[in-house]
Amino acid sequence: MPQPDHSYVIKARTEINVERKYHMALLSGMRAWFGGRIFRKVMIPWLLILPIALIHLIVVIGPTIIGLYFSLTKWAGIGQSTFIGLENFKNILTNDDEFWPTFGHNMLWMLFFLTIPMFMGLFASSLMAQIKRGAMFIRTIIFVPYILPSVISASVWRMLLNGNIGIGPKLASWGIPGLDQAWLGDPRTALPAIAFADNWHWWGFLMILFLTAMQNISPDLYDAAKIDGANWVQEFVNVTLPGIRPTIVFMLMMTAVWSFLVFDYVFLLTQGGPAGSSEVFGTLIYKDAFARFEFGYATALGLTICVFAGFIITLFTYMRRRGWDI
Amino acid sequence: MNWLIKRRTKPVFVNYVVLIALCGFALLPIYVLGINAFKTDAEIGQDSFALPAHFLLDNVTKAWTQGHFGRTMANSLILVAGTVLSIMVLGGMAAYSLARLNPPGSNVFMIYMLTLSSVPVWIYIIPLFILYKNLGLVNTRQGLVLLYIALNSPFAIFLLRSFMLTLPRDFEDAARVDGANEIQVLTKVIVPLVWPGFLTVGLVVALGVWNEFQLAYIFISTDDLLPVTTSYYAFRTRFGQDWALTSAGAFIMIAPVILIFLALQRRFIEGLTQGGIQA
After folding, report:
1. Do A70 and B126 touch (CB under 8 A)?
2. CA-CA to A52 of 20 to 30 Å: which in A37, A197, A221, A271?
3. Hey, are the CB atoms on B218 and A286 less than 8 Å from each other?
4. Same-domain status, A79 and A103
5. Residues of chain A found within 8 Å of residue B97, distances taken between Cβ atoms
6. Are A227 and A139 in a shared domain?
7. Which residues contact A228 (CB under 8 A, 6 or more apart)?
8. Å between B208 CA and nearest CA of chain A
9. Which residue of B has its CA nearest to A270?
């Protein structure tokens, strides 16, 4: 009688055993991994950042890199792009009809916003710092324009700067002549008029920033100044200004950078007109890309103004390094 | 001491005079807009600063239908809700990681976030437009919301992170001892404690998205999807000289914003000045 062959049983058993061992190893491995240091200290923290990082990769970083290439091409947005090297940048810098006047307008814009809103903000916040009763109320009122959408501010100032129904004609009817003109329709006044409207919405924000900074200055310094017999001008120059200097310098830097990026108010009020008298880089890039379909050229122009912005930031950083203590 | 108090009271009166004049400057355009919304065009032509003879509601109803405010405000609300919810969830996660867990390499991400707030949109907006076109994301809400999330996330993450850094670690450690994992620590311990931070972020981001014009104008041109800002621009272009109608449209658009701002002004002002880096 032949012996029944049990070898398959043994074989199966060993297989099962091996498999079980393998499973056990896998399980403990997984446990070690998921409960492990690397997983807890590296994987989970990065997984929490990952979604935002991915969005930035798709929306900001990726396009920036693609843009670096497209700035070197001639491209209409559809079809093939042709590599033309630095041709776009050469055309930009030699385009005397568009680039340099626009550069001038942006510099004027910067000059306006580095001075007038800063002065208004400092002036109003130093007045605010001295009062208590009603301060909250005044603060809120002055801040209201900042929360309005640019379309609305632009729309209402279009009405107020109008030559027939605006502020000018009203003043003329009260006997104050000379202001009843179409501010936005005149090439000489269009750009300052837009800046005026934008400033209406902007300066209150600066005031609050400066006021908050002033409230963080130690009252001891003011007491010391008083004991020394300082009047309020000396107090302002020697205590308040140094106390809020970091805020002022930071806002000066950001204002300078933003001056190259302005778009909304110019586009909404004049679209750069009349006759290009209020053209800024924002509206110019918009036109080059979405009206003239010169995508390569427009990208190169965008890159150029980023260089200006980068230059300003480097300048401020450099001055800080040089011990300007700002 | 008497002379000191005397010297302080006199300039304070001058302060009030100047500040009230500045308040007038801030309010004048809003006043003009508010009254002209309820006047006839003829009345505005006569005197655009006078109160209406009788309050006329026709402009508002006409602007509501002609400007499709029902639809466009709904569109804006969808953009606001999408952005705010995503920012709260995703930004909260990232902020927690950056505040407490500090994985190796996370400082690179922080520096990137800091620089981003001063990188001009013009450097990537055109290639992004082309990319979106290829991905079918132009003229979609999702595409615009993704962009809004990216642009608002530095502010949201830094604000939430600074809130989280002020919390004592004891609460979290207690939860960890009880066997909670990082996700549970975040949702059960951190979120309830920094809730005011989330509220501030939500308000500031919502206001920013509601008011946003430039990117909405570039990325959305389908009538059905227009948010209230770009749609108002089209409306104003169409009825350019009809001051009564455009004022009424503007009134519809800003009335809710101003009311919400006045109700929550302290939180708004705090949030916006902390995000001053953004504007």
Report:
1. yes
2. A37
3. yes
4. no
5. 45-46, 48-49
6. yes
7. none
8. 9
9. B237
Same domain, A108 and A162: yes
Residue identified by tokens 């074989």 is A11
pLDDT digits (tens, 9 = 90+) for B251-275: 999 999 999 999 998 888 888 887 6
pLDDT tens series, chain A, 326 aa: 556 566 666 666 666 666 676 777 776 666 666 666 777 778 888 999 999 999 999 999 999 998 888 889 888 777 778 888 888 888 888 877 889 999 999 999 999 999 999 999 999 999 998 888 888 999 999 999 999 999 999 999 998 998 888 888 888 888 887 788 888 988 999 999 999 999 999 999 999 999 988 988 888 888 888 888 888 888 888 888 988 988 898 899 889 988 998 999 999 999 987 888 999 999 999 999 888 888 889 999 999 988 888 898 888 888 877 766 55
Q: Residue B230 and residue A258: Cα distance in Å, rounded?
A: 22
Q: Which helix (H) or strand (E) holds A15?
A: helix A7-34
Reduced to 3 states, what is the DSSP secondary structure of residue A254?
helix
**According to the 3-state scheme, what is the secondary structure of A41-63?**
HHHHHHHHHHHHHHHHHHHHHHH
Looking at A84, A107, A134, the residue that finishes a domain is A84
Pick the closest to residue B80 from B203, B199, B200, B197 (CA basis).
B203
The domain total for chain A is 2
Residues contacting A247, CB < 8 A, separation 6+: A209, A210, A213
**What single string gives the DSSP state of each residue in A160-212?**
HT-TTTSHHHHHHHTT--S--S-GGGSTTTHHHHHHHHHHHHHHHHHHHHHHH
pLDDT in tens, B72-91: 999 999 999 999 999 999 99
For chain A, give the number of residues. Answer: 326
Q: Looking at the domain assignment, is residue A306 inside a domain? A: yes
In this structure, the answer to whether residues A196 and A236 fall within a common structural domain is: yes
Q: Write the DSSP symbol of residue A82.
A: E
d(CA B206, CA B76): 10
pTM for the predicted model, two decimal places: 0.86
Alpha carbon distance A266, A270 (integer Å)? 6
Q: Which CATH number among 1.10.3720.10, 3.40.630.10, 1.10.10.10, 3.90.1170.50 corresponds to the domain B70-243?
A: 1.10.3720.10
Alpha carbon dihedral A228, A232, A237, A238, in 10-degree steps, equals 20
Which residues in chain A are contacts of B182 at CB distance < 8 A? 40, 44-45, 48
Query: In A, which residues are within 8 Å of B258 by CB distance?
Result: 144, 147-148
Nearest Cα residue in chain B from A161: B29
Range of the domain at A236: 88-324
